[in-house]
Design brief:
The protein is of the alpha+beta class. The chain contains six helices and 18 strands. The radius of gyration is 19 Å and the shape is globular. InterPro entries: DUF1963, YwqG-like_sf. Pfam families: DUF1963.
Length: 264
């Protein structure tokens, strides 16, 4: 659920959920971005883009798994995003390069490698030292597409809410997810078809929720749905979600980032 106005979000939560549950749900909000095509009035945000060459520091090896180079899918310029993220960005990683195994590899090769932790990689780079680095064969190179990052406030999808997060009437609802589905579902903007960064993912799949550990829900880094113009797809109406454990994010350890793909 995305809101352009945080005060509207808080009001909706209070009116629909009541004072206690509304306050609890609103406290789960995170700042994030819709990634849209630039216009004359909304130019590209820093060096943020989809596709194109990677922006890596000299000497950084191109990531691979099983001898197969990964494909670069996006670059986020966190220096340009930092003013909106504020303390939700505890370190300043500079540029973040998002890599994933090319889904168009022969099926047997892809299925052998995709479940390994090295099938995805998020590599930070110092903006002052980063240089454009072309993908080695046979990695796919997608068209470089600058994006404008629209500042939004996001609430978690109903499937990302656990029973201990929000108070609910146990006689009326089978869980906190049931409550959110009942009273907030008409506010779901169905952003699963759009590219998003940070905030919360729009999972839209009951079979997958944002990973949690002892430090709480993982930090959502990037949501990439299939994109016919760019030339990538993740199965039938599929979406790729990049996340990182909260503790690893707080220390800037992007080697712990992971990717999850879901499709119909």
């Amino acid at each position: 659920m995305q809101f352009d106005d945080p005060s509207e979000m808080s009001r909706e939560c209070a009116e629909r959920l009541g004072e206690r549950a509304g306050r609890q749900f609103a406290a789960m909000a995170r700042r994030g971005f819709r990634l849209e095509s630039p216009t004359d009035h909304a130019p590209a945000t820093g060096r943020c883009r989809l596709g194109g060459p990677a922006l890596l520091e000299p000497g950084t090896p191109w990531p691979e798994v099983g001898g197969i180079p990964l494909s670069l899918h996006a670059v986020l310029d966190t220096d340009a995003l930092a003013p909106w993220l504020g303390d939700q960005l505890p370190t300043r990683p500079g540029l973040l390069n998002f890599f994933y195994l090319d889904p168009d590899l022969p099926y047997q090769e892809y299925s052998r490698l995709e479940d390994g932790p090295e099938a995805c990689r998020v590599i930070p780079a110092d903006p002052a030292r980063a240089v454009e680095t072309a993908a080695p064969e046979p990695a796919r190179s997608y068209p470089a597409t600058p994006v404008h990052a629209v500042e939004v406030t996001m609430l978690p999808d109903s499937w990302d809410v656990e029973d201990g997060d929000v108070a609910y009437d146990r006689d009326e609802h089978w869980g906190a997810t049931s409550l959110i589905l009942d009273v907030m579902s008409d506010l779901d903007g169905n952003t699963s078809g759009g590219h998003c960064a940070f905030g919360w993912p729009d999972t839209s799949y009951a079979s997958w929720v944002t990973p949690r550990d002892a430090d709480g829900p993982a930090v959502h880094l990037l949501q990439l749905p299939e994109d016919s113009e760019l030339g990538w797809g993740w199965g039938d109406a599929g979406t790729m979600y990049f996340t990182i454990p909260a503790k690893a994010f707080s220390t800037g350890d992007f080697s712990k980032a992971q990717a999850d793909m879901r499709c119909c």
